[in-house]
Amino acid sequence: MSDPALGLLMLTLIVIVIMMGFPTAFTLMGLGMFFGFIAFYVPGQSWAANRVFDLMVERTYGAMTNDVLISIPLFVLMGYVMERGALVDKMFYSIQLAFRKVPASLAVATLIVCTFWGIASGLVGAVVVLMGVIAFNPMLRAGYDVKLASGVITAGGTLGILIPPSVMIIVYAAVAGQSIVKLYAAAMFPGFFLSFLYLVYIIGWAMINPKIAPRLPEEQTKVPIPAWLAKFEDAYRSQSILISLVKAVLSPSKAKQIDAEGRPVSYWMLVTNLCYALVPFMLVAGTLYMVWWYVVIHQQVAVEAAVTEVQQLGTPELSKSEATPAELGPTLEFYLWFWGIAAACALLQVRYYWRFNAERLQIVKLLTSSTMPLGILTIVVLGVILFGITTATESAGVGALGAFLLAVQARTLDWKRTKEAVFLTAKTTAMVCWLFVGSALFSGVFAILGGQALLEHWVLGLNMSPITFMLLSQAIIFVLGWPLEWTEIIIIFVPIFLPMLKHFNIDPILWGTLVFVNLQAAFLSPPVAMSAFYLKGVAPKHVTLNQIFAGMMPYMIIVIICMVIMYLWPGMTLWLPNYLYGS
Q: How far apart are CA 3 and CA 21, in angstroms?
C-alpha cells in the first residue's frame, strides 16, 4: 500500500474508532504512533531508533508551549465557578416577569437566559442541565408543547460555544494560527443574530399556534410589589413613578409618613429606588456615549498622536488629503445613523418612562440585582479583549477572578463547590491539551504520508469555484457533526481544509466563523446530539428522546439559514474585526 493510501486509511480509521467509543485524544496518538512507525520504518534499524518517537516529543512540546492555550483553563474555571455559584433561577424569574406579556414568555425567557448564561460560562452541558432543571418543568406545567420546551433549551444552550468568550474559538485560533481577538470580534454579531433568529421562530410559532404556549395564569405573572411602594404610588398619584421619586427626593416629608414594615420610609430608600428607576436610561445613554467616544473622540486622538509622531520623526507632514478614510474619522453616514438611533432611543425612553409604574420599577430592581453584576463582568471581559487593553489570557484571569467575587458576594460558593469547579477545570483542560498533542502527532504523520497533499490535489483538480468549495467544506463539516463532537471536528478535520483556503481566496476568519455556526448543529443533530442527552438526564420520565430530537430539528434549519445570510452578507462577520483591527 502506498503512503498516501495509508494516510487515507488513517483518516477512515479515526472516524470508525471514535464512533466505537474510544477516547479521541488517545486514539489520535495511537494511530499517529502506529502509522508513523510504518512511515519512518527503515529495514534493519532498531525499533527504538524510529523517528516517530522524536516526532512525538517535538509535537507534544510544541502543543504544550502554545501560548494560545493558556487562556483555556482560566475561561473554563470562570464557567464552572459561574455554574456552581451563581443564581440562575433568580435571573430566569426576573426575565420571565419582564417578558410576561410576550407570546411564549417562558420560552423567550429561557432563550435569553441561555444566551446570557452561555456567554458567561461557555459550557454547553452546564447551561442545558441548569435550564432543564429550572425552566423545563415550569414550561411543561404551563401546558407548553414538549417539542417547543425541549428545543429552546437544547438550542439556546449551545450558544455558549459560539458567542465569545468561547473555548471553541480559542481552539480554532490555535489550530488555524489566527488571532483570538479577531475571531472573537467576528463571532460577536453572528452569535447574537442566531439567537435573534431563534427568538423570531419561537414567538412566530406561538403567535401562529397559541396552543403550543398557553398564556400563564395571572398569579404567575403578577409582579410582587412591596406594600410601602404601593402606598407611595397612591400617595403621589403621578403619571410616572419616576416623577414621584424625584419629588420625594427633593421634598421627602410626605414620603417619610409612609409606613414600611413597621418603620417610616427613609431618605436612603427613596434615593436607592430613584437610582434603580434611572438604570434603563443610564444603560442607553452609556451605550450611546461609549460608541460616540470610541468612534469620534478616540479616533481623533489617535490621528493627532500619529501626526505628531510623524512630525517628530522629521518626515513630511501628513496632510488630510493623504490620510485614509479611517484616519479622517467618522463619515457623514455615521453621524446620520448615530443621531437617528439616538433620537429613536430618546422617543422610546420617553414612552417607557411615561408608563413607568411600581410594577416596572420592581422588575427593573429584580433585573438589576440578578443580571447586572454578571452583565458587567461579561462586558468587561469582552471589552478588554476587543479594545486591545489586555490579551485573551489576561482577560480570562479577570473573568475567573470576577466569577469568584460574584459567587462570594451571592454567598453560594463554599469550599466543596470550589473544589468541584477546580477539579472539573483541570479535567477539561487536560482533555483539550491531550487532544492537541494527539492532533499534532496525527496531522504530522498524515502530512508525511502524503494524505494532505493527496486531498489537496483531488480538491484542486475538481476546478471548483470559491462558493462551491465553501459549500462543500461546510457540508462535510455539517455531516461530520452528526457522529462527532466539535472538538474532534476542529482538531482533526478543520486542518485538512485550512491550507486550501488561500487557493480559493477565502478569508480564514469568515470561514472559521461559518464553522462555529455550523458546529451548533453538531449539538442538535442525532445520533450524537449531546444537548439532547444532557436534557434527557434531567427531564421527566414521560419525555422521550425522540420528542427532544423532534424539538431540535427546526433549529438545525435556522442554523443553515443563518449560515446562508452570513455568506451573502460577509460584513456581518468581517465588519467588526476590520473596523477594530484593520483588514
A: 27
Q: How far is CA 541 from CA 107, 146, 251, 535, 544, in A?
A: 21, 12, 59, 11, 7
Asked if 110 and 152 count as a contact pair (C-beta separation under 8 A), the reply is yes
Q: Which residue has the higher pLDDT, 317 or 43?
A: 43
Read off the pLDDT band of 145 (50, 70, 90).
very high
End-to-end CA distance of the chain: 46
Q: Which residue has the cell 508525511?
A: 448
Per DSSP, the three-state class of 264 is strand
Residue written as grid cell 424569574: 93
What gap in Å lies between CA 34 and CA 149, rounded to an integer?
47
Q: How far is CA 413 from the centre of its chain?
A: 24
46's CB contacts (< 8 A; 6+ apart) are none
Q: CA-CA distance, 458 to 12, in Å (whole number)? A: 17
Which cell goes with 520?
A: 451548533
Q: How far apart are CA 94 and CA 118, in angstroms?
A: 17
Q: Which residues contact 113 (CB under 8 A, 6 or more apart)?
A: 88, 91, 92, 95, 131, 135, 156
CB 549 within 8 A of CB 530: no
Residue (of 557, 427, 435) closest to 485 by Cα position: 435
Is residue 259 within a helix (H) or strand (E), and if so which, with residue range? strand 259-260
- Residues in the chain, how many? 583
**What is the pLDDT confidence band of residue 303, given thresholds at 50, 70 and 90?**
low
Q: What is the pLDDT of residues 318-359, one digit of tens each?
A: 444 444 444 445 678 788 989 999 999 999 999 999 989 899
pTM of the entire predicted model: 0.84
The Cα 322–Cα 343 span in angstroms is 35
Q: Cis (ω within 30 of 0) for the bond into 526?
A: no
